[in-house]
Amino acid sequence: MHTHTPGTLPSRQPRGLVASIATLLVASTPALKAAVNSSNFALAGSNVITSSGDFSAVLGSTLFTNHGLVGVGRIDANALDVWGESLGSVSGLQVTDWTIGNGSYSGTFNILPDRGYNAGTTFSNYAARVQRVDFSFTPYTGSAATGVPQDQFTLTYNPATSYKFTFDLGDGLRTTTGLIPDSSRLLNGVAVPFVTVSDGTPTLPAQGSDTAINRVSLDAERSCCAPMAPVG
């Protein structure tokens, strides 16, 4: 995978990107109305605005302009991934392979789901993974308040480049789990939460209390895509 350098972004940001992943609309960040404290990068007040139209703010020497919602795209909530499981939620998201041309944008959403379905004492034997969704985006630039087609994003799931996280304790690669850990193991000299057997809580799919799991427990929340080292 590749990642872009922040310095390569234009000083005037492209119109706000919005994609709906599994029925969730992810809108562009609200305009920075409040003053930013450069010593701790904290907002000193509310960053919500109620006025209509574009809003601009300056951070250092860079001008940022919020044009509001100018694009929508959707993926069905019941979409399955390449492993036949739910495409998942979006706990972390990073854009790679970003390109701009002729007023349109394209790239890849690297989507990090959470630990799988969980509610109360119910957890899932769900392996952490990154779902890759290619997109193209042509922002709406008109002025109509209603009746605008919601098709500015084209989203295409890429099963060939989506992947699960794996680890190796010396006996081969294994995937992780979203179950509650019952112990810990050393991985590269660091103690990590580990599930030796199902902890007995209801899980999806069902696991007996004596079912061997032997997986690192991982609750994935955020992703950061770093450039891969050259091969060869």
Walkthrough of the structure:
The chain is mostly beta strands and 232 residues long. It is built from no helices and 19 strands. The protein has strands at residues 19-21, 24-26, 36-37, 42-43, 55-59, 62-66, 74-75, 92-101, 104-112, 123-124, 129-137, 153-157, 163-164, 166-168, 173-175, 183-187, 190-197, 203-204, 212-216. It starts with 18 loop residues before the first strand and ends in a 16-residue tail after the last strand. Mean pLDDT is 76; it is low at 1-34.
Alpha-carbon distance between the termini? 16 Å
Mean pLDDT: 76
Order of helices and strands: EEEEEEEEEEEEEEEEEEE
Cα radius of gyration in angstroms = 21 Å
**What oligomeric arrangement do these chains adopt?**
single chain
The helix-and-strand class reads: mainly beta
pLDDT < 50 runs, ≥5 residues: 1-34
Q: What's the total number of strands?
A: 19
Largest sheet: 5 strands, antiparallel
Percentage of residues in helical conformation = under 10%
The best one-word shape is elongated
Strand content: 35-45%
Total of helices: 0
Summarize the structure.
0% of the residues lie in helices and 37% in strands.
Descriptive key words:
232 residues; disordered N terminus; mainly beta
